[in-house]
Amino acid sequence: MCKTECIGPKKEKQEDEKDTKPKRKRKKKITDVLAASAPKPGCPADLQKLFEDNFTDKRSVIEMEELKLPVCPKWAKLCKNHTEQKSVVMLIVCSSAHRVLDLIKQLTTFKGNAKVLKLFAKHIKVEEQIKLLQKGVTHVGVGTPGRIKALTEQDGLSLKALKYVVLDWNWRDQKLRRMPDIPEVDYTEERDCAECYTLRLDRANSIIDCACTVFFSLSEAFKGDVFMYYGLTNFHQNQRHYMVSRDDAQLVGRQYNLKNPSITCVPFDKYKNGTPIAPCGAIANSLFNDTLQLFYHSDKNTETPVPLLKTDISWFTDRTVKFQNPSPKDNLTAAFAGTARPFYWWKPAYQLSVEENNNGFVNEDLIVWMRQAAFPSFKKLYRQLNRTQEFNDGLPAGNYSVKISYSILSQALSWRNELSHQYVTKLH
């Protein structure tokens, strides 16, 4: 009896305490907002207004949740009946180009036989996307607000056949960071570099130094690790004869191949007097050899050199396994004795860098170049930011300039040059 009497009052007390405890307020979710608003028929003007109202400033979400709603119940029938060019049945609007690519991969099962087209600004010109839209029938367009708006304004994308608009509004970049536009500068014959371009029209001027400067600005800071790339257009590293024009045995430091280059390097294997070329082949001969120096201009109109790292820009397996210097490695002048530089180089391989661990065949600029690109327009990593002093957090917003030592190859091989910067967040 005592046990029953003792436990009873205790239980009532716990229940009273539970009743007086304040309840946590439930946060509003996306589905609540959608349920409170009735769907309305739209028109192209509504979509354009939507872009201007919601994508010109910073955006926020209410409460993140996995949104599961039925989408496009008559998708197969709509795709079958869709025959209009320059238009899409479904338009998916994303916050960044990276998200566009991610969503296109996820659409594989859903789209079936439908054609999907990516619509974003990174490395794809508006004119090229207009041609793709005119070429055939596209069912799904996945892109960023700025590019979609540009296509509609230039009549490259028609909204007449549009049935569904999906706004990917509940996705955010890692650590709430959004990807800013990557600044790109085509300096082939632009601005101050036009004089260098004209000078290089005559190959006899190849021994004359020529430098130029281009300017650009960052509207917002690039926080974190920043990488600097050079880009080439109309340069076919994927051409089959070019791809095999190298001697991997020579590049790994074998003494025999150093003095006896492979037949695959012909006609870039030896000089007329029989002196072997190191490194041999068309790939090494066409090495990108413009020199780029980055400067930051503060509010006080001072020019501050931006510290850049030349190392750790190539694949780890390339610089540790596929590329090695010949012996003796502590005296590269002696190691490369009896060989000559490639035809289009200004200096031999053992003078590519003043740093011993970045010289000769293990020079990382050479290693990066020797890994061929799959397409005629490509970008290769040139430098990465050395995060020290005022650049400890990345590149601050403001004005910048790049001083360029212009190369003969830029005109001799008929390619176009550009440089770009981007930042990434490393995940540990």
TrEMBL record:
Q: Which intervals carry biased composition (Basic and acidic residues)?
A: 8-20
SUPFAM superfamilies, A to Z: P-loop containing nucleoside triphosphate hydrolases
What Pfam families does this protein's entry cite?
CDC50
GO cellular component terms, semicolon-separated: 90S preribosome; membrane; nucleus
| UniProt keyword Protein biosynthesis present | no
List where in the cell it is found: Membrane
This chain's source organism reads: Acipenser ruthenus (Sterlet sturgeon)
Name used for this protein in its record = Cell cycle control protein 50C
Family, per entry: Belongs to the CDC50/LEM3 family.
InterPro entries with a match to the protein in the record: CDC50/LEM3_fam, Cms1, P-loop_NTPase
**Domain of life the protein comes from:** Eukaryota
Supply the alphabetized keyword list. Answer: Membrane, Transmembrane, Transmembrane helix
Q: Where is this region: Disordered?
A: 1-31
